[in-house]
Design brief:
21% of the residues are buried. The chain is elongated and about 70 Å long. The longest helix is centred in the last third of the chain and has 31 residues. α1 packs across α4. It has 216 residues and is mostly helical. It is 69% helix and 2% strand. A two-stranded antiparallel sheet has the order 1-2. It starts with 8 loop residues before the first helix and ends with a helix.
Length: 216
């Protein structure tokens, strides 16, 4: 095959992905019919071991390899990754929340969702990504160091963004501690303290509560 006849790598990859999706559609449609709460209009994160649960619940309904391929397509979809990135819990076949999503899974899903969004726009989405990372880290209940140990990979670009988010968390933590010390010294209510310094009362309350939480 000549150079001019070769299919460019990105186009070849896209065709392969489309072919995989088309092959998985019948299985995905069957899953949506059986479990609309998981695979229907709204996706929910799936519990680990859902593949075996499906085979056990429907021993004659699915080809093993076809089901595995369909679940792979499903869990790599942007809609599913958004559900994971939101921090929702994992769900079983009955639609019950059964286990928390690991921080590293939330983090990596968040990165991938923003990477795909960034590829479709010329707007700089990095500030939004950093804010979401900070929120995810704070929601994890982990220290910045423990969080970084769980989510850091060999991807230098992803690690650089992570380091920026960690710096923001530490900066906000220091400001929160300073605000808490000032608040405790005044003996005022949150509303009076916020008014004294021209701060938003609700934001001040959230910052104080976060600072108290960090102090244990």
């Amino acid at each position: 095959m000549s150079t001019t006849e070769q299919t460019p790598a990105p186009r070849k990859k896209a065709r392969k992905a489309l072919s995989k999706l088309e092959n998985s559609l019948p299985v995905l449609e069957k899953l949506a019919a059986l479990y609309p709460q998981l695979f229907g209009a709204t996706f929910l994160p799936l519990k680990r071991g859902i593949f075996q649960d499906l085979l056990t619940a429907h021993p004659d309904a699915f080809d093993k390899e076809a089901l595995k391929a369909a679940l792979s397509t499903h869990t790599r979809s942007t809609r599913y990754l958004k559900a994971v990135a939101s921090g929702q819990m994992r769900h079983d076949l009955q639609g019950q929340a059964v286990e928390a999503m690991a921080p590293e899974h939330i983090h990596h899903a968040l990165l991938e969702v923003f990477r795909r969004r960034q590829n479709r726009t010329q707007d700089n989405l990095k500030p939004q990504l950093l804010e979401r990372m900070v929120q995810t880290l704070e929601a994890s209940g982990l220290t910045p160091e423990a969080y970084a140990d769980k989510v850091r990979t060999r991807d230098e670009a992803a690690n650089a963004i992570l380091d920026e988010a960690l710096a923001l968390v530490r900066e906000r933590g220091a400001k929160g501690e300073a605000l808490l010390r000032a608040f405790n010294a005044t003996g005022q209510t949150v509303e009076a303290f916020a008014d004294m310094y021209g701060l938003n009362p609700q934001e001040t309350l959230r910052t104080l509560e976060r600072a108290r939480g960090l102090q244990g």
